[in-house]
Every structure is written in structure tokens, then in C-alpha cells.
Amino acid sequence: MVIIDSSPADDEVLAVRPALTDAELNELFGVAWPAHSPTSFAPILARSLTWIAARRGSRLVGFVNVVGDGGAHAFVLDTTVHPDERRQGLGIRLVRAAAEEAKARGAEWLHVDYEPHLESFYGQCGFRPTAAGLMRL
What we know:
Aminopeptidase; 29% strand; alpha+beta; 28% helix; six-stranded mixed beta sheet; 4 helices
């Protein structure tokens, strides 16, 4: 685990690839995404290029996952911030840190899919809209 950002004043720490338990990830996802069903994250993280987690004290308050194609492309998935921590810049810091880590691991392009109401958020993170295709399986 590498700490990339910490603020002693508010006890918040961002870290690259820290150990995370299913319990804490399911707790964060459960409060952030009401339709979330508990799952095992070990197989997901095992296939990840990297991930960034944010803690306030011992509590997990933010997470973003990055998967790669083994080459130039990487994809941001599961950007999640605890509802109590939203609208304070944490999500933007998580995604920007994920972008830096993806670049450090060889990615040249970072992709993200999002719903229209998140366009401004991802724009602040540095993304620009592009045409893309999507197929629900």
C-alpha cells in the first residue's frame, strides 16, 4: 500500500491498492448504492490494474477501481463515495489519483462510462465526452 494523500487535520487518507475486506467494501457500497447486494470483492480486485481507497480514521469512505486491457487502455469502475463525504472533492481526488496510477502502470487512455447527470463530475476529473457504444448483456 502506498499513501498518496493524507490530511492530518481531518484524518483522511488516500492509498493505492490497500488491503480491503469484503465487509468494509460491502458496507460502503451498501450505503452509497441502495440496490447493492453483498458480494465478494476478492475476484474483482484480483483482476484490477489498481484501485484507490479513502479512509477517514479507520472507516472506508471512498473507493475507485481501475481495470486494464493489458495494453494502452484502462477503465474507471465503481467510483463510490460515502454519502456523508460527498460534494467535498473526495470523488474528484479519487478519480484523479486513479488516473495517475493507471498512467504509471502503462495505460495511455483512461475510459469511463457514466450517466448524464455525472458529466460535470467526470469533466472536473479531466474526462471529455466521446461517442461510445454500450450493449447490455
